[in-house]
Amino acid sequence: MKVEFLNAAKVHKRLARLIRDHEEYHWAVAWATETELSKDAFANRNRFKNVVIGVDFSQTDPAVVDALVGVKNGLVATEFATGTYHPKVYGFRSADEIVAIVGSSNFTRGGLGRNLEGAVQLTGKVGDQALDDILEFVANCRKYGRPATPAYASAYRASWERARKLPRAPRNPVSEHMLRASTNFMDMEWSEYARRVRTGGHHDVAESLDLLMVVRRWFAATSSFADFSVSQRKAVAGIAGQRDKDGPELNRDWGWFGSMRGAGDFANRISENDKALARAVDGIPRSGEVSREQYSRFCDAFTEAFANSTRTGGVATASRLLAMKRPDTFLCISKPNREGAAEAMAFTRKNLSLEDYWEQVVEVIRHSKWFNSPKPDGADGELWEARAAMLDAIFYSP
């Protein structure tokens, strides 16, 4: 068996030759980007014997995932749950000849060119223990893979787009729940989103956006929800009555985005200026990324507010507060919009819980194409700032 050391440039040259000359590809690769070399490989997709490409932290080019759709023996590694799927193993076989390149080079532009990389090439035949072990290793990697379906490729591309805006992308870019969501919802363009909001028929869009702007000013002017007046707190909570509309900013319909007038225990907590409820709202930042941890702390404090109540607050009342604080991130799920939202985002209409709300509502919204569109100029810029909450105009059905 022959062993050679290769740098990144040599790995690229050898792979180009091996892709051209060999009958079977046996690869386990952490990440890949679309290059002329990847196009050459996929032009010979019938030679894929075991090819398993990772997508952890959204480091793989979505064009590569698109190319894997429908490829026999080409898989996306999504099932390695204990750490990061991180191999860089390229095996090739023709009859009894085996060649393998093992090292630090991913199937990316950097890994095959501009990075400082090191690898070894092993050349030999069937029966050489190290080469047999390499092919067996790659074959075992199949258990970490799944076929790349059109739904998965679409969801991955949306996740990849979003990950580029985050300081750190999540390890698993596509949840199973995201794959169940409506592709019409996930793949909707911004222009279609804006059209549907403005033609929904049940929202006065201008009044709705004006309401959210008023609430945004209130949050900007105070350090805590506890410092709001009773009337302001009731307005934010969706329980304001006629007597609470005691000023020009308050004199409007506060039932937009979910009226909570029937939630008695919730209304009591708002009126009494419950400290835990204020702490829940204050824990959600006024701007920037809202994290899963911040949402979890919100849920803990929100639940604490109802510790001595016969009825606890639920998704409707919690998401009403969240949507008012951050309409760019949260949608109030209430009875009139629940059915439409459930159908689009594939959650169970009757059993949505606070624990499920993040994965089944927030994450689906965040990975949708319309959500990740750049902020437009003009009138739609204000709508973009409230694009999660304004889904109510699409889903609302009295």
TrEMBL record:
Gene3D superfamilies: Endonuclease Chain A (3.30.870.10). This is Phospholipase D-like domain-containing protein. It comes from Blastomonas natatoria.
